[in-house]
Structures are given as C-alpha cells and as structure tokens.
Design a protein that fits this description.
By secondary structure, this protein is mostly helical. The protein has 10 helices and no strands. About 85% of the residues lie in helices and about 0% in strands. Helix 1 packs parallel to helix 7.
C-alpha cells in the first residue's frame, strides 16, 4: 500500500513539476523574443517598417490632404496680406517693402508645402540615426537566461506535493500576467508606428500655417510633436537598456522562485516605462 502511495505521490510531483516548468519556459521565451524585437522595430523608419502602409499614407497625403492644405495656405496668405495693409494706418500709409515681405514669406510657405513629405521623413531619418547609435551603445543581453529555470527544476524535485501545487498556481498567474505584459509591449511599439503614420498623413495642413505669425504656432507645435515621436524611440531604447542591466543581475541570489517573480516585476516595470515614454517625450519637446 505504501508503494502505491509513494508512486502516486511521485507521479503527482512529476506532473506538477512538468506543469510549472512548461508554464515558465514558454512564458520567458515569449518575453525574450518580444523585448529583443523592440530595438529592431523602433530603429526602423516609416518606409522600412511597412512599405505598403507607407505608400498608402504618402498617396493620401499628396493627393487628398495636400489640396486642402493649399486652400489653407491661400487663406492664411490672403489674411496676412490684409493684416499687413490694415496695420499701416488703415491703408493710408503703405510701404512697398511689405509686398516684398509678403511675397517672400508666401514663397517660403509654398516651398515648405511642396516639400512637406521630405521634411517629415527627414525628421524620422534623424531619429533613426539616433536610435541606431543608442542601440550600439546599450550593451548586454535582454534575454532571461535558462540558468534560473534549471536551478528551479532542481529545487522543485526536493519539494513535497503541497508546496508544488502552490507553485503551480503561482506559475499559472505568472504565465497569464506575462502574456498580458507581452501584449502591452506590442501595443506600445506598434502603436507608436501607427501614430507616426497618422501624423504624417495630415502633415501638409499644419505646415501650411508655419510661416504665418498668427497661425504659425499650429505648424510649430506639429513639428515639435514629430520630434517628440522620434525622441520617444530613443527613450524606448533607454528603457530597454535599463531592463537589460536589471535582468542580468537576476539569478545569483540562490532563490530561483524569487528570481522568477523579480523577472516578472522588471518586465512589468518595462511596460510601465514604455507607456510613459510618449508623454515624457512630448513634455521635453513642449508639444501638446
């Protein structure tokens, strides 16, 4: 009878150990893949990220939005000419230089408008250069190593069924939580690129106001927001670098269970900071 009891106990232990290791191994593989993909995705320009979407957005910007921006520029330039004329004693004191001034500003505005796409893409080319340089300076692997899992499996074999059942429930919670964190990382990285495409699609309209003194703040704020989105990529790389430094210090404590929970905490911290990068970049650039 004792033989049967021991056999059932060992069988339950084997099932629980296999379940715990299966839950944790797959989870950390997904985390390693997701975090390792961050630098690759952030370092891409809008054209390199998805050329099909890039082509659609460019066509929309140049064929649909640009004519509207032309109307906006016509209104802004006409309104500015009226303001220049009215300023001089209600058109009783007019200097010919104001017409040259207005002509020069309008010419510059037209040049900006006709080269809107090149200006916008130049911002992200610079951002990509900065992000790629940051990626080269950030040393260390962001991968959660297998050492702690190996140590954990050795420790699990020495435990009884009751504690193993508790750890199995914990591993299920860790698995569900880490899947949610993977989704959060995906949303931040891909959401940033979708935001870039949406911003660039409407670029001609705010840039049509750039040279006007009354409405120019619209175009200036738009350029600030573009720089903020580019800066966000650099801040994301900083977050990944901090995560890499933290994750390398895990696993030397001799407590593999605690190390696993620490890894989950660091991954949660990574997600939280990734969500904060957008607002932080906007506050640094002064855009809204």
């Amino acid at each position: 009878m004792d033989f049967l009891t021991d056999w059932i106990t060992e069988w339950l232990k084997g099932v629980l150990i296999d379940g715990i290791m299966g839950n944790l191994t797959g989870v950390f593989d997904n985390v390693n893949a997701q975090v390792g993909e961050i630098a690759v995705q952030v370092g891409k320009t809008p054209e390199a990220w998805n050329f099909g979407v890039y082509s659609i957005i460019r066509d929309l910007s140049e064929t649909v939005v640009l004519p509207i921006a032309g109307l906006v520029l016509t209104f802004v330039a006409t309104w500015e000419l009226i303001q220049l004329l009215v300023e001089k004693n209600n058109m009783h004191d007019i200097d010919t230089w104001i017409f040259f001034k207005w002509f020069f500003k309008t010419t510059v505005a037209i040049l900006v408008l006709t080269n809107t796409w090149n200006i916008v893409m130049a911002v992200f080319d610079v951002a990509q250069h900065v992000v790629n340089n940051a990626g080269g300076l950030i040393q260390g692997s962001t991968a959660i190593t297998d050492n702690m899992l190996t140590a954990l499996e050795t420790e699990l074999k020495l435990m009884e069924v009751g504690p193993l059942l508790g750890l199995w429930l914990q591993s299920m919670f860790v698995k569900l939580t880490m899947h949610a964190l993977n989704i959060a990382i995906f949303v931040v990285i891909w959401g940033r690129m979708i935001e870039i495409y949406m911003r660039t699609s409407l670029a001609p309209i705010p840039l049509a106001t750039l040279t006007n003194r009354e409405y120019g703040h619209t175009g200036q704020n738009y350029l600030k927001s573009l720089c903020a989105v580019g800066l966000q990529g650099f801040l994301i790389m900083v977050c990944v670098g901090i995560y890499a430094a933290l994750i390398q210090g895990v696993g030397g404590s001799g407590d593999p269970v605690g190390a696993i929970w620490t890894c989950m905490g660091y991954t949660f911290l990574l997600c939280f900071t990734l969500f904060k990068t957008g607002s932080l970049a906007n506050s640094i650039m002064g855009s809204h």
